[in-house]
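Box S1 | Example of a co-folding query
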Amino acid sequence: MIRNENQKSDYQYILGDCLKKLKEFEDGKFKLIITSPPYNVGKEYEVKKSIEKYLSEQDAIIAELIRTLHPSGSICWQVGNFIDKGEVFPLDIFYYNIFKSHGLKLRNRIIWQFGHGLHSSKRFSGRYETILWFTKGDNYTFNLDLVRVPSKYPGKKHFKGPKKGEFSSNPNGKNPSDIWEIVLNDWENEIWNIPNVKANHVEKSDHPCQYPIELVERCLLALTDEFDWVLDPFAGVGSTVLASLKNNRNVVGIENQIRLAA
Ligand SMILES: C[S@@+](CC[C@H](N)C(=O)[O-])C[C@H]1O[C@@H](n2cnc3c(N)ncnc32)[C@H](O)[C@@H]1O
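Box S1 (continued) | Returned holo structure for S-adenosylmethionine
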């Protein structure tokens, strides 16, 4: 894409129900749809219902999302568990089947791992959530070089054979893999880890379950190019909107409750 130096990224943060508002957008507009939907766990913004009803409502939204997804676009769906009477239902397993039934292809199931959280007394404490990354087709954007992280042994070279003396790993860093770590208050490593947005984190607002801007940034740098359109249908306090504007992406966020101060 040819970039105009004066070009600024465009954004809309829309108040309303995403299923209704999505109808206003044309087919194939968005290069990346990234979101964390309600988990049906009875947070203040949702009424807990049976898992079947919850998933069938989400299925209708997902069908509409896929209509607005660009043919070379990606969806990143960040979820944890739905818990009912102590039984754990891993939402990504249920969602996998929905996306697959709409013809999408899974490219990664990313484990987003954190060291802190509630301590369980009747099962092992949960310390990860997942991001399902699907594409609409086989021809999709993946800018690995924009999201490389430092190699463990950056200066290591081949010591024998035809490549003797050459770097044995990419000097620009390694693939960040499908396990993304959160390190709380680890300022030295901050840029390479995905921080948890809890208590005293600088990004923390009143929202009960924000995801970090850094998590969105890694996805949008890898899966879009500058000035592509990004969508978050469950935008919360606008983490996706901020991450997109920070990185010159055009963005739409839809949220059905007033979350931002005027
Ligand atoms: C898990 S939170 C997302 C938080 C967001 N990732 C952030 O960082 O702030 C889900 C959000 O979806 C909103 N929501 C729930 N149902 C919605 C709907 N039908 N349309 C639009 N927003 C909805 C909730 O109010 C909540 O803010």
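The chain has two domains: 11-141+178-255, 150-175. The first strand starts at residue 11 and ends at 15.
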